[in-house]
Amino acid sequence: MKDFRRIALFTLVIGVIPFCTQSGVMLNFVMTALYACLLSQAWNVLGGFGGQFSFGHALFFGTGAYVQAIAQMQWGLSPWVALPLAMAFAAGVGAFVGAASFRYGLKGSYFALVTLAFAEVFRILATSVPFTGAGVGLMLPLKESAANMQFANRAGFIWLMLGLVTLALCITAWLRHSRFGAYLQAVRDNEDAARAIGVNPFSVKLIATVLSGGLMGAGGAFYVQVFQYIDPGIAFGSHTSVEALVGAIVGGLGTLWGPLLGAISLHILADLTRNLFGQLPGINMVIYGVVLIVIVMFLPRGMAGLGTITPLQWLRGSKRSDGDKS
Amino acid sequence: MLDLNILFPSVLNGITTGAVYALIALGLTLIYGVLHIINFAHGAALMVALYGVYMLKEKLGIDPYMALPIMVPAMFVLGYALQRGVINRASHGKDENILLVTLGVSIVLENLALLFFKSDTRSIETAYTLTTVEIGPAFIALPKLVSFAGALVVSVVMLLIVQKTDLGRAIRAVSKEKQGARLMGIDVDHVYAMCFGLGLASLGAAACFLMPAYYVNPQVGNGFVLVAFTIVVLGGMGSFAGALLGGLLIGVVESLGGLILGESLGQVGIFVIFIAVLMLRPQGFFGAKA
Question: Does the pTM of the predicted model rise above 0.80?
Answer without folding.
Answer: yes
